[in-house]
């Protein structure tokens, strides 16, 4: 079974847990899943085993605490320390699929924006190659850092009784808006220089749609390969 | 941690390997078999870190298979390296347990005779 099939099955089976057990188990699950460097397949397999175990135990009147102990964080850390790292090849495939997907959406939205604003005023649809690449790299970098920061925020605060969700959401929100601001400021001050080409909305829409299709194929091809 | 669970921790890998050697088992089955043998001190969740470690060291291999009733389960079986490791652990245990039994059981007997 592939990791995505295990995740889908996990979502269904979690509904069968009692409220108390669900809370205990979900914390373990989020804690392990937000550790991004681990092999997804292996993580999902052991999470499924633990869920099956908990469901069987629950029928005999046991709680998650009886089965996994009174120290869920210590237990999860022990699991994590024995899980293998994700293969570089898989991480690369995943990251490039996400990047192609984001770029696809970016181009589709750009084409719509040109079309809508073009109704009201003249729009310059030329693209300056070097500044565009700089901005794209900046966005990719911020997304990369953002995912890491937000996941490690969740990872750290999950079993921390003192931390509250509001504070964490504010911090994540601040990071998101800060990153967005950096991109806007950078593109505002970036001077147009170097070679450029005309990139009208219809071409932008076409290329964007093709990229979205490619990213969709990449995702589904990966599923078939693992079976 | 009680003395018993500390002692157990060192030899738990060997116990898990020995159970798996008899027939392939999945997690819940394994924990129940350990309890049936009399190792009630092994809290059930403890087996998952052990299973992961044994897999990582290629002593056991897990395979998803449909179980007799209901869902797919991950069944574990020993690899060749696992069989070897189990033999080594058994030998080591015999070398330790015989003198320790002689030593510590003697104490128990002399206590009884008082």
Structure description:
The complex is a heterodimer of chains A (227) and B (114). Chain A has two domains: 3-82; 88-226, no CATH class. By secondary structure, chain A is an all-alpha fold. Chain A contains nine helices and two strands. Helices cover 78% and strands 3% of the residues of chain A. In chain B, strand 1 (60-66) and strand 2 form a beta hairpin. Chain B has a two-stranded antiparallel ribbon with strand order 1-2. The longest helix of chain B has 34 residues, at 80-113. Chain B has 114 residues and is of the alpha+beta class. The two termini of chain B are 31 Å apart. Chain B is built from four helices and two strands. In chain B, helix 1 (3-22) packs across helix 4 (80-113). Chain B has helices at 3-22, 27-37, 47-56, 80-113, and strands at 60-66, 72-78. In chain B, 66% of the residues lie in helices and 12% in strands. Chain A binds chain B through residues 1, 9, 42, 45-46, 48-50, 52-53, 56-57, 62, 66-69, 75, 78-79, 81-84, and chain B through 26-28, 31, 43-45, 48-49, 51-53, 56, 62, 64, 71-74.
